[in-house]
Queue: 2 jobs
Job 1
Amino acid sequence: MSRESIYSKIRSALADVESKAEHPGFEDAAIVSSRRLGTDSPKGAFTRNFEAVHGRVMNGIDELLSLLKEQGRMHGYCDPDLMDPIGNALTTGGCTVETTYDRERYDDYEFGITRATAAIAETGSLVLDDARTSDRLAALSPWIHVAVLREAEIVRTVPDALKQLGPSRNIIWATGPSKTADVEGILIEGVHGPGEQIALLIG
Amino acid sequence: MVNRQPIDVYAHQIDDEKQASVLGGSAASTDKRYSALFNDYEDPDAIRRLAGGIKDHTLHHLDRYLEQAEESLVRNGCHVHFADTADDARDAVLSILRDRGITRLTKSKSMASEEIHLNDHLTENGIEVLESDLGEFIIQLDGDTPSHIVRPIIHKNRREIARSFQRGGIADDYNDDPETITRRARVHLREKYVQAEAVITGGNFISAESGRVVLVTNEGNSRFGMAPSRVHIALVGIEKLVPTDRDLAVFLNLLGRSATGQQLTVYTEFISGPRDDSQPSGPEEMHVVLMNNGRTDVLGSNCREILRCIRCSACQNVCPVYRQASGHAYRSPYGGPVGAVLSPILFGDRFPELADLPKASSLCGACNEVCPVDIPLPDLLLRLRDKAKKEHIPQPGDLPMAPFATLATSPAIWRTAMTMSKAMNHLPIQMAPVRPLQDWLGQRTLPEWHGGDFRKWLKKRKETDQPQRTQTSQSPSKSDASS
């Protein structure tokens, strides 16, 4: 009943609109921030913009291991497919790593390592596709989230990233760690999601 | 005593501490917005106009796009519910929950749900609702209402929040450090997330082409809420459509920058249906409630441009009236200029009661300048003032203008009145028993009344003017030459 009523109300509300606006149309270039993209490589621009929102780009497992040691966060989750390049190296380095995420123990994981499918250079965003994330909570509940990514997967702009959204039912762009400024406008990171967002580039 | 309008009364009664929070918070947001847009773009105004154009096009073809969105959502496996009124929307949500025996849920921030007082309705019906956005969580603890579209607790300071946490049993001791407050909420809410059976969200955009529901949050609360829940219900106003996924780029680039000065809000989530076999987790059912609740009345009015709004709050932050009065003065979920236009028509049966809102503006135009979809807010405020006048809605504080109108529209009466008023020069006005007049005259001397003299002078000047004017217009060029 509501359905028909809404459609008929819309039609009568629009009955007196004489010239209906056309879609103005636009070129991608008109809405892309060329200043944010700069003249460097997609990796360079991604790093700059991601770090501007307090994300951290890492180029090797050693760098990750020393951060975990420094913070004393030595227990976490790793996507089983990423054990070979990453999880095993962390285990050798003294971490304990689980490959299944137990939701009952969501607070036990100090870091979570999952796959990102792309990144956006213009905005410094990671693209996490549910279909390729081994567990959504593993990318969200640990204090440190490590998104693993190949350099070639970095796209340049927001319009480029929208073009390749694909059929996945759930895709999320993460532009830095979880944050709030609800209390007196003071920026606090790590509200519900990670307090540290890392992009680990492989290959 | 001057009879004030309700919004004025709020502005006068607000305590200093609260006013400082509102003023400081909104001014900071305005600065961040400005630097984000102008550092990133050479001509941000061109993008604002483009965004306004796309929204206008969508609204002018809303029947077509709504039909397309409906088809796309169904194709994606969503259940689509239409809700014409607030009651319909509340009932739709409640019956989805009841049919599935759900009694516990989390909710991420949604202005549409504030409009229909959804939380109260669900709670009265035995459902435990937990707001998961930090600001909304504190609002819920306090039994308060949000005073800002993006920052619901902009009117509270850390001391009030620390006391609320103690009172609400979130913390044993008083601690007003913002980081501690946030950590405490993190721990408390996590326990609740994993127990929740359903999650209610709003929706920032729906792409008609793909049926993707787009949600933006900074905290990650909607995503956390969605990970363990079986059922996801998105409550979305019918004006939130955009034609295609590609159009989303325009709005996403503007929304974060206009709201909080971020190039993108931290989490931008694209949801197109319930979990499928490719996903390891996610809700098994997705319901989209498309809500009208007065939007078609706005669409049929001469203020339909207000439906372009993407709820960024930039107009609220920049508005000098909002900064003084705070959001609660607008007596609806929407404060600031957008609320002054939207609320009186969206909640049409409350028009007489809210008709003071469009008048609470100096028409300075700052709201239009910052609007990411270029809504001509000052024009719309004027149209609503006109509506109130045509509908003869009396306002406290209105001056009786009828005698002046008679005077000013009849030249003969005007002339006589001007001359007659010279009698005032001989009256002991300081003796008049009008307190404000006496106060004023205590400091100043009233100049002598010269009613009618100007007209006489002008008439005489017209007759003898010509030679004098030629002479005066020459004098500046002479002095230029000599200097």
Note: The longest strand of chain B covers residues 231-237.
Job 2
Amino acid sequence: MSNQPLSGGLLLGDAAAPSSAPGSLRPGSLIRARRIKLQVFRGVVFLVLGLFFLVPIGAMFEFSTRGDSVSAPRTLDSWTAIVKVPELTDALTASLELAAITAIAMLVLLLPTMVWVRLRLPRLNRIVEFICLLPLTVPAIALVVGMVPLYRWIGPNLSDSILTLSFAYLILVLPYTYRTLDAGLAAIDLKTLTEAARGLGAGWGTVMLRVVVPNMSSAILNACLLAVALVLGEFTFANLLAFENLQVAILYIGLVSAGTSVAVAVASLLFAFVLLMILSFVGRPKSRVARAEDTIIPGPMMPSVSGPK
Amino acid sequence: MSEARDTRPGVEVRLEDLRRSYAGVTALDGLSLTMAPGELVALLGPSGCGKTTAMRLVAGLEEANSGRVMFGGKDVTGLPANKRDVGMVFQAYSLFPHMTAQQNVAFGLSLHKVGADERKRRAGEMLELVGLAPFANRYAHQLSGGQQQRVALARALAIRPTVLLLDEPLSALDAKVRTRLRDEIRRVQLEVGTTTLFVTHDQEEALAIADRVGVMNKGRLEQLDTPTTIYSRPATPFVAEFVGLTNRLAGTVRDGEVEVRGTRLPLVQPDAAGGPAIALVRPEAVALAADTDNVPGPLIGSVIAVSFLGATSRVTIDLGDTTVVAQLPTSEASAHPAGTRVRLVIRKDPVLIARDETVTADA
């Protein structure tokens, strides 16, 4: 990406008299032309994909603000109904609680296991990976059918609260969160960092909380986001196990009031967007600083590298 | 200055008959070693010789199959790494990426329940000790490799460790930084007086920095002695060949001497049994004289290469059936450019003999 290749050692004098050779493009303008082309291409892709995502959401919003008929005046009744319909608020709270529980349980279970396997039992790595990715290969419906007897036991013996769904959701989010955390762990020199910390007097708890977690914060945040997004959008498990979570509630309300169900759908999408924005900005500043020196091409869509490496 | 730093005086470190094997492969085969308080011992050997295993056992990062590790008379064999009070510097850069240099150094102190003010003071002091006080607020990625290793050294020493363990701390650095940091590590180590184990595969490094050098081979300690003795009086053929350059010359052992190409040389071990053997002759023990009479002889050959090393030069001579390397002052070597015929004179220093052809060092 430098100007050198076209003016090698012998042609050094050319720098003073540019474009002396007729027919050859000046290297500077060539690069500028390519850069503009790239910018245009990026802009087009951004626009097309943006429309692809935004038009349906816009349409949903438009639909949710209609009254009872096409000719009726605009109204926000469907939106205000979100907080007024008790089934919906209950389902929303339950889904948010489930999302939080699942994300935390996933981290507590997965992160120490993965660290331990990497450090002490590297031969088990493949097996753990296989187990974690397994739920991806089993259709949700088959998983639920397998779980029905379990929940038939859990209901009377443990609790019949909707929060017991977090057991099932933990398995559901495993493949996605495993992949994310795995990438985060691969980006740090785990062995050296933990050994250095242990040599300084840190027990395993301190190693996890003060060395491992801070150095893969963006991977952890990403894993949490995935878990939260998956749980908030989950329908099959809840419906077939007869729990009313957000998506199930949206379906039922849709049967009564299409406007409200669409409004809730838009709201939950926006919620996920906001979450995504927050998370992608939280993990960013450090890597920006780290790469500031070797950044060559400024551009609006720099690949965002997560983690300090 | 060093009183103000109130460092802990060095303690004696003893390894007793340490053994460790991995899935049937012996990495450490009965290592015993006593380090005097404040001493710097370098473990030197080719890769796979067990030196890193030895260090990890001392650190408590791995458990020995048998044997004991004693710090100042206290048995620490069963203690995990975080209870042993060892300072470690690794080959790989090991600074915590999310902390500044200062926070890195203070990290160990906070685990040792040192108050915030004291922590800050001591971290600053340690950074000053390694000459990095102006870089206290930099993150690892804003420091060069050599600077990172210096911060790692400051971090290891901040907790006033019983033992300082350096696992090839210079191997990832380029040659010039390596020499400078090597001298710096030695200076700091002498200043704080911590007993130190330095693991390396680089003989020059080991000889330059250590009070004593332990040469390891196949999980065993071949020789443990001062750098001078290791070099000039190697105890085994392996040490002779691993440390420094060595000529292998076929000869015959008889009456406590070895006859090599018509020259009789005394033996390090005069009681060696007679018979054919390989004499190990240092390049410095070979002198050159111009050959004028053109009569063939066992020590007459022609110079095939001269490499200039600065004050000395290394001359390679072809003797017909073998080649010999001589190292001599550059002023003398310049009298024998490539192509000239020379007569070798082997100085009558005691030499070691090898009988096993397989003894070669993969330095």
Note: Residues 1-23, 285-309 of chain A have pLDDT under 50 and may be disordered.
